[in-house]
Specification:
Distance between the termini of chain A: 50 Å
Strand content of chain A: 5-15%
Number of strands of chain B: 11
Structural class of chain B: alpha/beta
Low-confidence stretches of chain A: none
Helix content of chain B: 25-40%
Largest sheet of chain A: 9 strands, mixed
Low-confidence stretches of chain B: 1-61, 63-69, 72-87, 95-103, 226-238
Strand order of the largest sheet of chain B: 5-6-11-10-9-8-7
Number of helices of chain B: 15
Structural class of chain A: alpha/beta
Strand content of chain B: 15-25%
Radius of gyration of chain A: 31 Å
Largest sheet of chain B: 7 strands, mixed
Mean pLDDT of chain A: 87
Oligomer: heterodimer
Radius of gyration of chain B: 23 Å
Largest interface: A-B, 68 and 62 residues
Shape of chain B: globular
Helix content of chain A: 55-70%
Distance between the termini of chain B: 25 Å
Number of strands of chain A: 18
Number of helices of chain A: 49
Chain lengths: 1066, 393
Amino acid sequence: MKEAMDILESIGGRQVIEQAAADARNRFGANVLAAIAPEAAWTGEDASLLRKYLDATELAALTLCGEVNTSRLVDDDAKLLRDLCSFAFEFHRALGDAPEQPQRLKQALNATCEAVLSNRVDDWRRWRLTAGWPVPDTKAEPSNWATHLFEESCDAFLRLVRKDGWADLRAVAEFVARLREQQSQHEAAYLAARNGIKQVAALEVITFYHFAKAVETAAEFTGHGRPNDALGDVELHMRHAIEAADVGGIIEWAILLRWLRAALRRLVETTLWHQLAAYNHKVTEFKHALTRDEADWRPVFELLPPQQDAVHQVMSLALRAVVVQMPTSSGKTLLAQFRIIQAKTNYPQGWIAYILPTRALVNQITSRLRRSFAPLNIRVELASPAEEFDAFEDQLFEGDKFDVLVTTPEKLDLIIRGAKIDLEKRPLSLVVLDEAHHISDTSRGLRAELLLATINQRSRKDTSFLLLTPFIKNARDVARWLEPDTNRSAEVKTTLGIDWRPNDLLVACSWREGKRRQWTVQMQSLHTTKQTIELEKVINLEPVRARESAISKENTRGDVAAETARILSKRKSSTLLMVLDPANAWSVADKLRSSAQPASKSDKRDLVRRFVADEYGESFPLCSLLDQRIGVHHGGLSDEARVLVEWLMEKNELDYLVATSTLAQGLNFDLTNLVLASLSVRMGTHTRPMSYAEFWNAAGRAGRLEQNPLGVVAIATANEKQRTEARKFMADKVADLVSAMETLLADVERLGWDLDLVRLGRNDPKWSAFVQYLSHCYRQLGSAEKFSAETEKILTRTYAFTRLGKTNPANAQKLLEAVRAYGAKLASYPTGILTLVDTTGFSPESIVALASNKQEYLPKTWSEWSPSQLFRTGGGISAIIGRLLTIKEADLEGGAGIDHVLLSKLVVGWVNGQNLATLAKLVPKKKDKSQEDHLTDVARIIFRSVSRTSSWGLGAVQRLAEFDESKMSESALQLFKSIPSMIYYGCQSVQGVLMRSQGVPRVICESLGASYRQSVKRSDNEIEAARRWLQETKLSDWETAARNRSKLSGAEHRKIWQIINGFESQ
Amino acid sequence: VANGIRTRSGYFLIFVKNARKGRGYCLSSSLEKKSFMTWPATIRRLAVLNCAELFCRRLLPNWPQHNDIFVVVNCSELSCCSNWNELTRMKIKKMAGCAGGGAITIQLPYSGHFDMLIRQLDMSTPLAKVFSRTGAQKTRTTGWAWRDEATCRHYFADRVAKRLKQSDASAFLSEFLQRMPDTGFSPVHLKLEASGSKAPRVSEIGEAFAESVLEDFFECHFPWPTGCDRRETTGNPTGPDMPGFHLPQASKARFAFGEVKSSSQADSPPIVVLGVDQKGTESDCLVAQLRRLLTETERRQTLIAWLGFRATIKSNWKQQYDSTFNHYCVTGDCLVLGCLIRGGVVETEADLVDAEVALAPLTAERELWLFAFYVPFHKSKWQSIVMGKDVPS
């Protein structure tokens, strides 16, 4: 280490190099941006100075990795080597490739080794895609044997690093095999011409043979996990190669071989096979499954640096509560999969819950887990986010029909509290909470927190917890909340990953600058806490020129965002624009329309366009926007439409996607540019500031696309105040994960309210989760006395209370008293009320309100409950909606300002299969609304108030009807239980519900469901049977289902179904 | 191993090297006093303890009798003398001035210095300077002719041949070939290369000659036999022929990197100095190689790194490497050497003038020494001479 530091000292010390590397990164980023904005080009240090830094850095790194086995480097030495290699990589990238061979290839090899040793292979891949492959296009003829060996073996090595699926690994094997074949023809002549007393030519070819063998071995191990001692074999061959090069005095190659040895060693060490050696047979099976060589399966050969850091702790069965902090896009899901396997192996009869915040993520992760786990026979099912249970879900929870259940916190809460699964017979062995930072979300976070508290209490320590989150300050506290024993709880804070970045990112603000019609868009980089690219100065993204519109104070952020996105999209890339609400989305999309280029026809876009037109009508603006490669994504679109728009973005079919925060939580695709027209998030009727985590969650996706090595995040601003706000926002740092309860308590205190849980539970939906938790605890304990005695214990189980005890003891005490008082209130409720609380997800107060005079609005007979009676004009649904509108917790009206008559008309129309364009005609259009805004508003009412809330409410009031289910026939019961889901999915039959639950488009769900029922008369697991039937059924069934019902063909519907279910790429 | 040489001043020096500190008698048990005394008086070979004088008195009761100076050279790894050169010379000079001779013990950082010391002190140079130019502040261009053909042939047959023999890698090759089957490549052709003695190539002889002359007469040291220029084959390694040290008396040691070209072409300069290829671009001539060495830090540092790795293994010059490395880190100082070995041609500074003109502008930061060494026979004869043929008895 001393030698390395001496070398660094000789050119000014480590800090100078570090700063130079940061500048090199800025230089690289600025020069990438300069392709569209020449003013961005870096003018700082000249190349010779960078070269000097590079040389010194490489020399210093060599002192650490040249002779020493880098695997044995520890702590400071290991970190220093990693840092030096990262710096060197930055210098290489900033300098670019040498203009001519063979220098180009040699420098590229150096840069590649440095990327490997600094865990920056992803950056390297993106860089190489833009800089080109460094091996000569026309390689040397085999007659020039040594040069041929050099180029071929280096090409093989570079492919091993790139690992673009199995193609690259196969290429490595082919290259080396071909060299062996060519050897007999070309080697002898070469040696005769070149070899002398020093045997240099002979020694040189020996170095290549050993090197080629080492690369071949590493590639073989990467793909198949063979030979067992690959690391030893690689080490041995590279040692022989280096010795031969040394003896021959082939100096530059001898040095390069030392780099290559360290890199090969690292490549072997990062493979799944090495990282996860010696666990158990299931893990081994999983490694085979992940690396399998199948069409349309993107194999996973290696772990990302943060994964390498975390995986062993994640898999440790000794740890009961693990909180993993990792940045966006660093592969948390794969880690969870390994833990799932451990849990399943350890506890074969148990099941695993995988909790995600949104329906989109539930679908995505389910699809991913199914594909990964299929070869292991680990069964993955999803429970729909609908806050009630249909007949098929009830069937799913009976017996042993799945191993992993993917769902939302709300649904799992109902499953646990409603005892849908008998935890005595089927223990919940593991809970994975993804995006765990949402615990602090005041609207939904409390539910997730209390769910974990409930499970922790119910499981009697049989359940382990894995929480996945971006960086938070107090992960250890969170882990200890779930498991106070410090030996059995851990925060996994990666050391390799702590400064690992998934991408190179420029975060900047943009604005219009100029006078009247002569203006341009300027951009200034913002200083962040995450080592993002910084430009040297404020730049004009375009030259000042005459525009159609004049610059004025009236310009909105949306105007600036559209203009910024237009310029950034010149990078041949996909741009996401985040706006505050749907109205802004349409407006910004419309601005982009004027500058968008006519797009060539695309089958994919045409498919989505036709689907949208089928639901919303041909005049819906999204249809024409799609023609211009512009997408829109907000709560006014159906789940299916949103998934399809995301799919288009993933498939690079869109230049722009204008989205509201509905996308942010489930953002699971990569992009190049992110333009924010707001740093706020719309939550229903009110707006709140975007959180630091939310910002970086979205920003982390920018620049991940392989074709562009730089992500640009631009915050569009309309005035100086907004720019100041943006700078301030960027100065934020990683914060504590707080409980939503803390915020709620602070709000109560700020507003001067009493901490009266009865009133809060009745009036404020945000408190509902808490009072339900108390109600459940009360029900479990069975008496007021026990509840009173254990009040503190009940609270201690919550994260909120453990934190309040430290941060605000006074509030903790107030809460304790309030809960005691609430316990007395709970004692006054009939037992049935509390049971209903657990099975419906409504607070006790709401249940009481619903139960009051229930005969006034509930259908009285079974026939009145039948869908045909219920869902018709003047049917029973109207009265039910009327009552639900009085329940604040349901928030059925949702600020839409519509009455129960209109709402029930919408429900009836929705269930009876009317499309959104038709439904929109039922709602009077406001004068100030455009047609698209009106349609959007109606769609939001449908998806929120009708689909989600009404179905939830209907499910609750069904239970108040107190039908004796034992007297109902099986089919009648199935029908009865499916009624809420009919509203949720927008269909009118049991089969329709089943088809919709499997993602079949609404318009054909009834007819396809009928076909299914003809084929499959009965199954003990209808969900699984329906999925299999849909996968296997003939196209003709789809065509029959679509005929005369839709403008789309059966094949198109099937394609859409495949996309929605993640089968599209299979 | 000991060595004895008559100096130009008429004194005789006997050097004894590799006496190991703390190991007791270094004299072989088989080496009796009697047999020792039967050796010629002018050349006595002995091994000693740290204290040379006591040892010499014990072995040689009549000593001093020949005005001989016994210099016991201890090349222990543990010892180090930063300015050994100057110190050594002063001591020897002082002793030489005393009547009756004497004995001193000196310590050298590593054994490489031993041979050099002997040559510096003892040998009258056989090279005659035929031209000298100072093109720029840091550029020195000199031509040296070895006119006495007989001694030159001996030099080739002994010194150069010995150096070549040291770098004969056939034994290593055989060893490497034993591991070859593991690679899946066939060792058949390579085995033929390893079997039997391989004749040195002309370029290898030229390099060995340049290394020997630079070590013997120009205060350089090249501790590790290096390969020939590989660029023409793989287009790959940098291939400076000579990575090593420059160990001047008056200043600190520094790295020395040299390029060598051999030519018996009648034209001046020969094509190997400043050649262009068919495309009209500069080919891999001496000037091109030196330009890269002068301008590309990366190349120099590759050599330094490589020397560092070799120093770790050949630890008897590790200390020399370390001190030189520190000097380089602080100052960036190193010497670039360009050697043109001319066989059987007329001595003319025109051989190097163009090279000097081309390279002088690049020497702002480091020194460049250009040498032309003229040997009296054509390079086509070198191979037979180093193999012991055509050498006068």
